[in-house]
Fold each of these.
Amino acid sequence: MDTGIVTKPHDALANTLSEEMTAVNDLIRRRMASKHAPRIPEVTAHLVEAGGKRLRPMLTLAAARLCGYSGPFHIHLAATVEFIHTATLLHDDVVDESGQRRGRPTANLLWDNKSSVLVGDYLFARSFQLMVETGSLRVLDILANAAATIAEGEVLQLTASQNLATDEAVYLQVVRGKTAALFSAATEVGGVIAGAPQAQVQALFNYGDALGIAFQIADDLLDYTGDASATGKNVGDDFRERKLTLPVIKAVAQATPEELSFWKRTIEDGRQTPGDLETALAIMAKYGTLDATRADALDWAEKARLALAKLPQDPIRDMLEDLTDYVVSRLS
Amino acid sequence: MDTGIVTKPHDALANTLSEEMTAVNDLIRRRMASKHAPRIPEVTAHLVEAGGKRLRPMLTLAAARLCGYSGPFHIHLAATVEFIHTATLLHDDVVDESGQRRGRPTANLLWDNKSSVLVGDYLFARSFQLMVETGSLRVLDILANAAATIAEGEVLQLTASQNLATDEAVYLQVVRGKTAALFSAATEVGGVIAGAPQAQVQALFNYGDALGIAFQIADDLLDYTGDASATGKNVGDDFRERKLTLPVIKAVAQATPEELSFWKRTIEDGRQTPGDLETALAIMAKYGTLDATRADALDWAEKARLALAKLPQDPIRDMLEDLTDYVVSRLS
């Protein structure tokens, strides 16, 4: 797949929604301000201006437009979704003790854990105010449930990710929590605020859910195959941080006793020595788990594409369809 | 003041509301469960069962009953308020790197920072679901604003607490964020869910606000005067953690140049040596700042008492009035 082609869908959406995205960015900037605590915009500007793709707010805007919405509140919901995402990143930074995010040092290295936790809490509260302003209890219900799924998935990951008993079903649950729940809420609330019929709202949920899963599986695969300059992460970070992701889960499922003790030592017990990453890659190559993981990502991208069939035909729908290629394009 | 008398108001409220408090505790236990992440109830049970006074949920129940509420949702709101409180404690534990809470080791020493952050997020999300179930947008608005005030106050504290320029006005703002905002939201939503007239809702807010401020000032004072067995904290913790609280702020405002360098070294620069706590106490004694702080706490308790005048005469109102003594009773 040609990079010139695969970046198009994302850019096309960004161009089509550029006026609304400007309104979202303005709203984000206004609401992240704090009269009393200047530390807040310091910390958040670092993340919000760091050139994220704004994929999630764009999904909300696209869903609302696709369902014919003409009111002002999709802007609030798009900002809500980006605030929740940013808050999650801040809390992840504390959790992971990771040193890099989008190629820059994480907030908790520049400032400290305290700021990351509390400014994340502030952004959650701000997102909560924004959604209340829409006056839609159904939207609030969806986002409250998404928030619970996200937090539960993150906690589940704490225990599941270093446990070799974690299978693909548990992995999927973690992935729904850490990524897909916010994608599906982002698209679903776009339909709900537009007053779309239930079948369309359900289709938007299914699209966001499958797209998010494809996106996260692709991310986990790239951790083993990508290059740091493109992903902003170092190859093998997940292995070094003892995170059991799909490529390893598939290898563990087929492991010889000797391979099983390798995984036990490196992932469960965390006693890693130089050369272990290379051994891990060799075992994964032996069973073709990187290819199998790629196939799973493509399957979910296809599910996302199919979900769109129930939505009105529209240039935006075409762009959302192309986006299903985009999220897995880095795998090609 | 006789201890036998001053504990009465709290017990009287607990007895009067015992049936509803049982319902609140049941709801808390059900909603803190997680099918997928057993780590969650492990961490929260530690806090929720640790024998907290349940002061905040009791305030919500009392406010709703005082305003004649007969529906089911004050139970949800009381559980909401306790979840927010517990989530805040979990995030505070990360932040403070404190080793003790209510006389027990904090969750982040028993588990780790990761669990404290993410389980706190889970409780926030659960509280959010509970309040959405009430179906009251006004309640959601109040709690969203309270959440923002809490987080903003906590972030403000990060920068203000080690800065000698912090005056009593900034201190008050921090205190509203860390304590009074949840007290006032707890009482206000009780009135709102009961459909009370605005004058009563405002009176409930004023009561909770003043009670919370009295409570926090008392807490900050006890840090210098209390005994560890009663407060579950060590005397001088705030000083050692370089937290500028009211007794010190009052001393800084009157400091000689020599005293000012003492405060600068110990609080701003954090270079403390043995005997510094004793010196700090001697300076505070010289200006009578502990007595002045105690007088402030009593003033706020009196403001809380006066706010109740606008509410219906009722045994519960008498108990809320007695509670204004209770929160400062430890100072006598």
Amino acid sequence: MLPYAPPESAPCEKYRRIRPVAQLDSEILAALKDIVGEERVLTDPESLQYYGRDWTRFYEPAPSAVVLPGTIEEVQALVRLAASSSLAIVPSGGRTGLSAGAVAVNGELVMALDRMNNIGDFDPVDRTVRCGPGVVTEQLQQFAEQQGLYYPVDFASAGSSQIGGNIATNAGGIKVIRHGMTRDWVAGLKLVTGTGELLDLNRGLIKNNAGYDLRHLVIGAEGTLGVVVEATMRLDRPPRDLAVMVLGVPDMTAIMRVLAAFQGEIELSAFEFFSELALQKVVAHQALQRPFETITEYYALLEFEQPDAAAMERAMALFAHCVEQGWVYDGTVSQSVAQAENLWRLREDISETITPWTPYKNDISTTISRVPEFLAEVEAVVNENYPDFEIIWFGHIGDGNVHLNILKPESLDIDAFREQCGEVSRWVFEIVQRHGGSVSAEHGVGLLKKAYLHYSRDPAEIGIMKQIKLAFDPHGIMNPGKIFDL
Amino acid sequence: MLPYAPPESAPCEKYRRIRPVAQLDSEILAALKDIVGEERVLTDPESLQYYGRDWTRFYEPAPSAVVLPGTIEEVQALVRLAASSSLAIVPSGGRTGLSAGAVAVNGELVMALDRMNNIGDFDPVDRTVRCGPGVVTEQLQQFAEQQGLYYPVDFASAGSSQIGGNIATNAGGIKVIRHGMTRDWVAGLKLVTGTGELLDLNRGLIKNNAGYDLRHLVIGAEGTLGVVVEATMRLDRPPRDLAVMVLGVPDMTAIMRVLAAFQGEIELSAFEFFSELALQKVVAHQALQRPFETITEYYALLEFEQPDAAAMERAMALFAHCVEQGWVYDGTVSQSVAQAENLWRLREDISETITPWTPYKNDISTTISRVPEFLAEVEAVVNENYPDFEIIWFGHIGDGNVHLNILKPESLDIDAFREQCGEVSRWVFEIVQRHGGSVSAEHGVGLLKKAYLHYSRDPAEIGIMKQIKLAFDPHGIMNPGKIFDL
């Protein structure tokens, strides 16, 4: 939705030019084939199109070739070849990203890690398992289940996203309030740097205060520091009998009070919210019923474990307290797994429901307590300037992450809508900046938000990030142009 | 205990020499006093001695002066002065460190942050509070309690250690298995880099995927990247009715099985271990009773919440299962807060109890499942070479962190003992390396373990760390010589 940012004017002096498409000559192609085998270097138009883009459908893919390495040694050999030929590499997982972190628009070599999808070396005491970068999120979730355990990072694209990509983007999702982001489940990772060197970071340890924790630097770096070629992932005890509660609340301030009241007593595993408008759309377009007849401005969805009757009693007492205080007008709680799933759908089906309106989407965060003010300010500026725009709010309010969606008015053509939304972006990011928030809560920066990074990070920070990149990738070949330009 | 490592031979070319003591001339002293005020620049021998060392009593303190800034602006001005005068700075907190990360042995300027101990801006929805770096750990714990909340990072030196130092060393302690390290409670931090620039990192956000997470890089960097001048710390819901169980187990393999069994069902907040020899010493020297008459080689101490009767029933069923399997020979569980405290003392009083034997100490970790093998290998090599050495094992077994203690035989003089322990260190670190462990689980590297860093981190990683240091600290003035030499 947002315009592609042109490269900044002053390139870093250490940074060499990368090769454009035309210069991927037959010599390099032959060398690529020597490393991974003839049939694992793809240059046909369909493959270039397929592997060249992610779920951000805004950029025209233009990679020069796709390679499919099968081992860490092959990845190292490919990176060394790329470094010596000044050829840029885009590491590529499930390409479900929404910020164009994995698109190849500039003649890059796409390194797709699909074949490195081995999962094994499960350790029941440490509760860790070793994954290739190409392991699909759902595959890890299922593996955990088979061991009587649980991989808690979950989100809509779990069926296609890969662990390597999850690590590169520090994927979040719907259980962050209790279980954190992908960051919190990476016990160790192996990285091939931009010089082809293999780093074995943290090796599955829980306590390791021997020097800088480079693992955390790589997590969320969107492939700009190197290629994640293996990860040791932590698993958790499975949750017991999850109950879901949906509450009707009059305003955002009340939602905050409900959150604080419940969190004081109960370990919530999710605290989501959506607006009445979002609920109307979902109920109208999916085979779902309203949770209750009472209409309120917002709805909160809470999830928690109920290992015994006492847990539900505590939750019901909190509900009664919230009603008494005027923070909650009505509510319902699941009595079965099927009911819990249906209540979840009220929140989870929103995104799919509104797709026909080709919505403008933005994924931002502030501290939790600032969300009500933030929402009000965004609504005020949008309503004032574009009174015909319908705003749909939903998101992971328990962690300060809201998804702003604006539906395209039927009368407006798509280009005019996009242009107006570019303006909305600037207003939104200015409000984000004023509240000390993040221009990208969970989707990353990629190409899409590069031009807006300065709203969240100051020049000194960005300068240090660039130097860190060059420490890992002195030739500037690893996913160049993502997050920032050198 | 370990010998001070001489500087490596090839200094990095970007690194300028720092000033020795003699060169802290009257001009610089006057400039320091201009910034913080006459009475906040200390050069008397007692102050130099007091502020120049930490709890590692192995290095002779030799700072050139001590400054006590009161504001972030003063810290920035001091750093800029130091950068322009090539004067090294040692950031200084409670100096309770055990790896000489905060000692000044080379004419450095000690920057003691004691005066920056303001605590405030509590947010009940985000459950965060802003702390100056000089806030004492216990002060934060008490502040949390006053808000009906809980700061879960706890360890022996909580009464003197400061938040800035906890962040610099990523302090761990006795609740890591459930609550993680200091790293997990830092929602945001402000850092003054080696150029005097102020970075405001993460600003209290839960979800923030806008570029590299520099916050995690600073945590555990032991002051080598800059001075932490403020932190936004997260607080948690307080635990409900903690119960403590002590179990007698025949061997380390059984301890691992007990851990796995309990963790499958119960959220443990601690899982510690100690040996029969450790128990004997504690019972003989403190006013404490054995937990039960049965003598076993090791003891496990478990702590968990019991919000209701069901929780204790689950724990008792697990205990019965472990006895049935032959993993546990005997056990006891606390019936009151006083009993829980007394059981904890069996573990917590070990360190103080063995102090008269001037023990050699080492703080190392492996993955949890490798601990039994690791212990056996260390015991074998020590027993073979020094059969008169008494080994006392205890530690946080639930997170793979063991504390190795060797008591000095009465007949051996201290210098000979130290020399022999130097040899033991090399054996221990070789075994650590073979098991992919860490030469410093929670105490950091500082000066003490600098010479051994390569057992845990390979040259490529150390090379990247050095470049990262220079990105934050291009003049090499921030705590130089700690962790590694440039």
